[in-house]
Inverse folding.
């Protein structure tokens, strides 16, 4: 067999059983590769130095160098009279710079309600009866109307006192005075205006658009249409209040005017 030929060439005794034969053949095949993978031992061979009979001259030692300290060069921009003092914004040090703290401000409650209401009116579907208060009189017409109302502004306390004193003096002189005659002026107050509209004595009703809550005057335009009384919605309850010498006024009513101003009221 070929295995017997290999064993005869290498002069190796072959094992008698098959298991021994397999192990023996595997060792023969793998042994050359195992020798290749093994690292070789490095042998450091040092040559012995030959004794030298010559004497080596010692090198001269150089003296130590002097350390030269270089002065810092001043830039053209740097001024020695003014020192650079950077600010420290830590706690208890320099004053903090101004920042926009609008986001962190604790706003009053009425401002929050105003903003929430404005957002709701933008996002929700507003009923027509409420939406009519956004359709106000234009600026030019509103200015003309306010100028007309100021002609019929109610008397102040001082004016009323002066008028009554004049009547008393005229009575003392023997002049005839029509009793119960009052000057013509605009009427204010929600209850008073409502009664005038119901009795159809009001010739014009002026309603403010920013009454809060709006439910106070929500029904007034409907009542005016039912009774056939003309009405108009104007911007600014403070502007109406100024006419009647108050801070604000929800609505005003004109009942009677002079003959010369009747044409302006009809327009």
């Amino acid at each position: 067999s070929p295995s017997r030929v290999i064993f005869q060439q290498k002069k190796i005794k072959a094992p008698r059983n098959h298991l021994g034969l397999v192990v023996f053949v595997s060792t023969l095949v793998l042994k050359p590769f195992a020798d290749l993978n093994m690292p070789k031992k490095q042998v450091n061979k040092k040559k012995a130095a030959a004794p030298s009979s010559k004497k080596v001259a010692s090198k001269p030692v150089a003296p130590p160098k002097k350390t030269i300290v270089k002065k810092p060069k001043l830039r053209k921009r740097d001024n020695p009279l003014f020192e650079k003092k950077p600010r420290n914004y830590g706690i208890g040090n320099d004053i903090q710079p101004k920042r926009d703290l609008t986001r962190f401000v604790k706003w009053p409650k009425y401002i929050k309600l105003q903003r929430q209401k404005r957002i709701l009116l933008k996002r929700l579907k507003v009923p027509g009866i409420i939406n009519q208060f956004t359709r106000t009189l234009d600026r030019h017409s509103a200015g003309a109307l306010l100028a007309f109302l100021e002609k019929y502004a109610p008397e102040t306390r001082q004016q009323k006192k002066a008028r009554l004193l004049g009547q008393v003096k005229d009575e003392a002189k023997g002049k005839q005075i029509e009793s119960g005659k009052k000057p013509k002026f605009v009427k204010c107050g929600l209850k008073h205006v409502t009664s005038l509209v119901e009795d159809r004595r009001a010739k014009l009703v002026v309603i403010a658009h920013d009454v809060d809550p709006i439910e106070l005057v929500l029904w007034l335009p409907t009542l005016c249409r039912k009774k056939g009384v003309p009405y108009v919605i104007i911007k600014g309850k403070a502007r109406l209040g100024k006419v009647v010498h108050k801070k604000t006024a929800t609505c005003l009513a004109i009942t009677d005017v002079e003959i010369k101003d009747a044409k302006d009221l009809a327009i």
Summary: Residues 5-11 have pLDDT under 50 and may be disordered. The longest strand covers residues 204-208. The radius of gyration is 57 Å. The first helix runs from residue 2 to 10.
